[in-house]
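The instructor's notes for this session suggest beginning with a concrete chain rather than abstract definitions. Hand out the sequence below and ask the class to guess, before any prediction is shown, which regions might be ordered.
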Amino acid sequence: PVVMGVAAALYLFEFIADKIPGVTPFWDGLHTVIRPLGAVLLALGAFGELSPLPKTLAMIAAGTLALGSHATKMGTRLAAHAVPDPATQSAISVLEDFSVIGLILLAYNYPWIALPVLVGALLGILFTLPFLWRVLVFLASAL
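After discussion, reveal the predicted structure:
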């Protein structure tokens, strides 16, 4: 209950910080470090009883997946900031919130259905990252 309470409080803080246009880029920049590190520590806790090689592989996989999903989120947000309409950023943020809640509920109630959804999302990330990288390079060269 304590962990779930802290997670709920942090999610509420994330929800609020994500809706403030000027705060979002700084918040995402901070989470570029926090999310992969958190995933690595979670994998360490989950696979702590294994021998060092599988534990290390699990930690590398978790950090890589967290960084890839965060880079996709952040890159999509940076691309959306090219559109000066504030409603676009709010719509993307609300869509993210509902998709996270939906995937958590799906994983909790129907894990075997959530697994292909997760694999599909990871494949989407793999195909989206090169495009987002090109957008980021374009925006950086425009500055």
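Then share the key points. The mean pLDDT is 84. Residues 19 and 90 are 6 Å apart (CA to CA).
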